[in-house]
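Hi R.,

Here are the chain sequences for the assembly we discussed:
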Amino acid sequence: MLELRNVSKTYSVKQGMFSSPKPLKAVNDVSLKIGRGEVLGLVGESGCGKSTLAKILLGLEQPTEGQVLVDGKELGAQNRSELARRIQPIFQDPYSSLNPRKSIYDIISLPLRVHNVGDSASQEKAVREILDIVGLPARVMNTYPSQMSGGQRQRVAIARALIMKPEIVICDEPTSALDVSVQSQILNLLADLRREFGLTYLFISHNLAVVEHLANRVAVMYLGRIVEEASVEGLFDRSRHPYSDALLQSVLTPDPNKGVPDTHLGAAYPNPIAPPSGCHFHPRCAKAMPQCSQVAPQTVATEDGRVECHLFDSAQTSAA
Amino acid sequence: MTQTADPLLQDIIGPTPGQLLRKRIFGHQGLLIGGVVLALLVIVALFAPYIAPHDPYAQSLLARMEPPVFLGGTWEHPLGTDHLGRDYLSRLIYGARVSLMIGVVAALISGLIGTAMGVAAGYFGGRVDAVVTFLINVRLAMPVVLVALAVVAIFGGSLTVVILVLGLLLWDRFAVVMRSSTLQVRGREYVAAARAIGCSNTRIVMSEIMPNIVNNLIVVVTLEMAHAVLLEAALSFLGLGVQPPTPSWGLMVSEGKQMMLFEPWLVLIPGFVLFALVLAINLLGDGLRDVTAPENRN
Amino acid sequence: DKSEDVLNVAFTKELENVDSYFNSSREGVVLQRAVWDGLIYRDPITNEYKGNLATSWEWIDDLTLELKLREGVTFHNGEPFDADDVVYTVNFVAEEQNGVKTQRNVNWMKSAEKIDQYTVRINLKAPFPAAIEFLSGPVSMYPNEYYAEVGPSGMGLEPVGTGPYKVVSVDPGKHFVLEKYEGYHDSPKGQPEVGTVDIRTIPDVNTQMAELFNGSLDLIWQVPSDLAEKLEQMGKFTVANESTMRIGYLTLDAAGRTGEDNPFTDVRVRRAVAHAIDREALVSALLKGKSQVISTACFPSQFGCDQDVVSYEYDVEKAKALLAEAGYPDGFKTEFYAYRNRDYAEAISSFLNAVGIDTDFKMLQYSALRELRMKSGTPVSFQTWGSYSINDTSAITSQFFKLGSLDDARDEEVAGWLDTADSATDPEVRKENYSKALKKIADQAYWVPMFSYNTNYVFSQDVAYTPTADEVLRFTDMEWK
Amino acid sequence: MTDTPILSVRNLTLDIPVGGGTLHAVRGIDFDLNRGETLCIVGESGSGKSLTSLAIMGLLGKKISRKADQLSFDGIDLMKTSQRGMRKLRGLRMSMIFQEPMTSLNPAYTIGDQLTEALLLHKPVSKDQARARAVELLEKVGITAAESRLSQYPHQLSGGLRQRVMIAMALMCEPELIIADEPTTALDVTIQAQILRLLVDLQKELGMAMILITHDLGVVARVADKVAVMYAGELVETGPATAVFQSPAHPYTRGLLRCIPVPGKTERGAELGTIPGIVPSLVGDVTGCPFRTRCDHAVAACREPIPLREHASADHNFRCVHANGHAQNSEEVPA
Amino acid sequence: MLRFILKRAGLAILVALTVSLISFSLLFLSGDPATAIAGEHASDQDVEAIRRIYGFDRPMLVQYWDWLVSALRGDFGESYYFKLPVASLIMDRLSITMTLGVCGISFALLTAVPLGVAAAIKPNSLIDRLALFLSVAGQAMPSFWFGLILIVVFSIQLGWLPPSGTATPLHFVMPTIVLGYYAMPAIMRLTRAGMLEVLSSDYIRTARAKGAPEGLVMFKHALRNAIIPVVSLAAVQMGFMLGGSIVVESIFALHGAGYLAWESISRNDLPTVQALILVFSMFYIVFTFLADVLNAWLDPRMRAG
Ligand SMILES: Nc1ncnc2c1ncn2[C@@H]1O[C@H](COP(=O)(O)OP(=O)(O)OP(=O)(O)O)[C@@H](O)[C@H]1O
Ligand SMILES: Nc1ncnc2c1ncn2[C@@H]1O[C@H](COP(=O)(O)OP(=O)(O)OP(=O)(O)O)[C@@H](O)[C@H]1O
Ligand SMILES: [Mg+2]
Ligand SMILES: [Mg+2]
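And here is the predicted structure of the full complex:
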């Protein structure tokens, strides 16, 4: 139901006072599909373009190239409020995502008021209902964000996102600012809501354990490109791309019998303004081959997704 | 739960921001002092006709420069009389009107201009921002006193002209502060959330951004009020401000200056009330900044 | 500073240009009298004309004046003085293109011609009875070769004259140092006594006094009366007061230039204004010193300034009655303009307020007010006029009542009388016509003359000086005690 | 190595005066650390982990009051050591790595400057020697082209590199104790693993004692010899890592372990364990178990002082009214 | 770097042009300068003649263009009042204003920075309170009043300092204090705030964790970073101070550019006023430019990207 076709987003950034702006491809030719009721996990390092992608989906940023389709219709062409009813965000930072000057009631009911849904009585009723759903007592309606804990705020943010009964929720690292004890509450809530309302999630996280727990499909992003996409099982059981491997290895399970794994990744994260030639990942790749630094790899379909790596490129060609 | 009386549970839902603010306000000495002094001066200004013992314009050439009571004068003129025999206290009281009026109206005008420019620049960025930044630069590069003097010299020094000149000149700080505050708030996720909800720009600016920068605005308003009051006094002192017989404190200092060596109180008294007013406004502004600063908010 | 023979003097205003033809200020006159000489000299006490650079003069006809020049005079730069200098100076300043700042001081002259090395003739444009007065005042003689070379700005920076003092240094507007000119000719001005005169511009009178107190100034002048009074009480300084030719007056829009329905077109209103102002109080409380209440549109000592005119006494009731009679029982609102002496103006406007004339006080720069008056007139304005120290009624009354752009009365009859008086050579005819004009002006209350000004001179006990009534500091008259 | 612990803490208490009273941020914590050993302090945000480490380093602000029955480093009583004395220890014998690599380096000075500073301060070495040592260490922490890095400024390095620089900086004088306060929290997962590995390897190689502060149980399990679980200013459970992870005694520890999804163990999409409620405020008088407001097994006695209990072995302790942390058997413990 | 400088310079010129255009049109509105030039005793014909000679009857933009073209050659015309080239007049006066400005900003920096640092090191201490008091009082003190009080106390009562003039360095003491005191509060507050912020930053904790002595921490690690914003502020304040020296110069009778400006306004001496506005804004522009460069030098983050 949600589809990205060759979407790119280029920012122009200034680095020092003295340098002229340079283009930065935050999102580079990304194509993705999310089916109804699916949870697509999006993982990748900081700065690889996950949030930018989320913003494009939310209509907060216009892609420099490519299209975003919702139910086959192009996103820009649909009217703004229509879009807002269908796609809603949950952000990472529960402190900055709620306006500190507004009461919880104002925050949650804002979408209703903006889109003139119902009268004030029915709006209040809706707010009460949604508060109940996200597990907050109705009395918090008249309090302010500063009076709440991080977990409670995140629940408010979820309530605001859900009050318009959207179909798709974009969760941009919704738990990474929370303590583990609270994180599990929110994860449970998100899972319950999905079951109950049949929601579709794009779930962005850099915590692979969480992604594995919640998602059906996973897309791995590196420097603006999706380097691998697969079902959860597919990825976690037999990942293909070396970067996905490294990611998986870095997951530290609380197992006192194991030591710290060696990811075989190089030390330096590349500069996104001047990405490495060929395969962007090659400088850090343990399995880099000569052509990796020269030729950008092709996207190769796999049984439950695709991968972008010369390893499979050549496997494919040699097989053919 | 059976443990509702447990002390650990008590402030799980803390005081509202309003309560916190009130608490901080009443815990801030400077703010209270400034606020009380300013309130007193405002009352004095509002009720000048009922408080002033004499007509501030009534001259008596035979009773010129009578000293205040504490320097051997009479209670008829508690603070003495000026060089035309007008009651000094009454003129001071009416002078409060002039200073406050100039401070408030000039700050209002410049506040409107500066806030509009700053918020537009911060919110829309890009070309709007470039233009506003340029205008701010131009404005900052113009020497205020000099330009204000020139304008007053050209258009004559009526109260209206002085207010307008100051109002049209002092918007720079508003623009700068509002621009950076808006920039800061614009990047917050609740603004992104509001956009994702489908709010219009106007609504975002008015109900998501403004409430969060209005505290900075108030602080700048006080600062610019003080600035305007001081500038008016300086212009009047240089003879290019408010015109006589309007009792402006700067003008009074300027008039008393001639006799400063022999009757220093003529200068000291109006200078002191001017100092007190500006001090009160500044204390209030500083206090407001302290109690509303984001780092104190949570 | 007596010990070093340096007299430290303060000016209040910045002098724009020392060249006496290119400034119009009092300070300029002071320097002009010290650095240059005129052809003729008027004794400030006896008002008798004496020869200075000229030894004698004679009217050839109404338009031609012939002068014999003093021999053996040299300029400060060594250039000898002779007819060429006079001819060059007169021809230069009389030429409008050369932009002499105060045209009326020179524009009565058409040209000068050399008869021989020490004889010149000055040709007038029209008969001008005050010619001798002007030649003994603002018209000073410049060295032709030097002036031709450096022009007004050079002269302003390094002035050269024949006067009792030569200029040692000029820091424009700020600082002037004069030194006794040892070769000064035998002039009626007398020989200079004090060796060096050091003049600094100190705009603030308090600073002036502070310096006077600590001895770094020996003489200050134009001291406000309140301060002069206090300084006198201190007993440490000599305070001298002299009246000046400057008078203060209100000019009222009798001609209706600011609007036909202007209240001041009604003579009763104008008379009411005259009655409303307590001129005695102004003089005794504010101006003090040798100031006097005046009722004529000229300074009493001026030739032709008839004192026998209507005088309006201070009478609030009468003023109110007159206003009521004119149809303004509750008074009216009007703009009130002034450009100097803010305190006097304020006091006057306050008197007007007291009878119901509600004034909107406007203090403008001189030039701005003048322009306003020339363009559209003003309902009431407080003006002063110093006649440029010329002791003749033509220097004031004729300036303002001959239908010029500053004439608020526009009375053709008055203008006619003044025309006759100005151009007549017979003193009696002049007096008679001035008198007629002045009487009508007073009767119609076109102006409300108020007071004459005075100047306070304060100097240290070491200095001996008697100021004169023409508000000119004469360094040649100063001595150390 | 030896029997005397290099660091010994008894009843460390930290009080902070705040607007409405006193914040009892750390209350009576005890632990020992032997040479060459790694202690992990784990706990939720605000539980007092950083304060504890700063208290050991003597870097608390003047506002915060520090009390302890014992706080000794290699036999030196830190409670009695002057600021001067502390300065001699800091950087030389004990050093610290902070959480935020982005802000922990001074933006105005080069890497080389900052690296050599501690060495030059504490040891009589020449500038060149110091630089040589810096290069050596940079190489050791896996930074390529170390020589040229010395003249770079912090902003020219990425987060991972900066944290490596921080580690190198801490090691300049070969300290005996190194305290790392959440050294990897701000970093990406892949980098986190690298840095942790580096730290552990270096610690082993140099035989340092290390206190690693974190809120990530995964990190603790992989790195620690000893674990100290902190909750709201108290150590609720301490013990050898294996013991704590295999048989957690305190309800809080057990709760934490249930909260995290573990790939391969936790069923995908299944309900995760939770700890309801939020951390209590510690302003004012705090008595009893701070966890009682969130504990399923809370009883009235939880408001009274809580005894310290032993679990299985003498060095595995926990604080709970329930002798065995309550109903241990009825609760299903992962791991 | 070169690009940056060129761009910056271009902006500066554009700002200067706009300022000059604004001030020119403002002064053009002031009406006819001919009367002003003619002076108090001029007749109507005098005024008329002057108007023609000086070309005041031409359209404004033509006059502006003329002015601009000659201004670019350093020729600001001739003062109506002094009959001297404005450029030389201003150059002559500027030395005093510059001296005053440099003394003033030095005084401000020398008092404000140590005070601010001391206040930040010991917040809420006596010295902090003193600093706060000085800055709050300083912001509220009308400088004309402050100047007058100083004269009364130090020149009249005590007789220690000369009340006016520029003859000796002593003459500059009081003007320096008055002018510097005007800039001090802002600088002090910024120093204090900057120091406080820096002192609570992580890298200061790092420095302490290395065992660096307090002196080193304060002056090597903290001040260097805290001073960066102070540099820009000082430049801005310097620009403001020069523009604000009008009051001080008129009180202490310093014949500097500020006083010249005031007098020229009173005398309607347009070429001088016009040139002075431009000169003062150029100062501001140049100072802020220099501050940027200095900042770039102090702050490696701003050096080449
Ligand atoms: N408005 C912007 N202007 C310029 N560059 C931007 C902008 N927003 C993001 N970027 C750059 O685009 C790249 C991708 O940023 P993005 O926020 O999408 O990353 P992310 O994967 O969400 O990282 P994180 O995990 O830290 O949230 C980064 O290099 C970032 O610096
Ligand atoms: N200087 C201080 N002033 C007031 N309160 C403080 C101060 N420093 C710390 N605190 C408070 O003390 C408590 C413990 O803080 P500490 O920094 O030790 O927590 P932490 O466990 O390190 O948390 P995190 O994981 O977020 O770093 C917190 O509630 C904190 O707000
Ligand atoms: Mg992101
Ligand atoms: Mg911490």
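The interface with chain E takes residues 14-20 of chain A (CB under 8 Å). Residues 180-197 of chain A form the longest helix (18 residues).

Let me know if anything looks off.

Best,
T.
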